Amino acid sequence: MSIVRTTVTVIGVAVAISRHPLVRAGMKAAPHLMSPRMRETAAESARVAAFNAGALLRRIVPKSML
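and the corresponding structure tokens:
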């Protein structure tokens, strides 16, 4: 499967999940349920995940395409 088709599939699944009523309700209630420590942990986890995704991308995609 090509990278483009895989990307389109992943985006389609993400959009479908984001439109689910339970996911929307959870996202709406999340700020009220999180403590400051949980917010810090979530932010740090997001940064680490983004860094790891970039590192993986640099290993997979040839430099000529970046």
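(Above: one complete record from the training split.) The chain has three helices and no strands.
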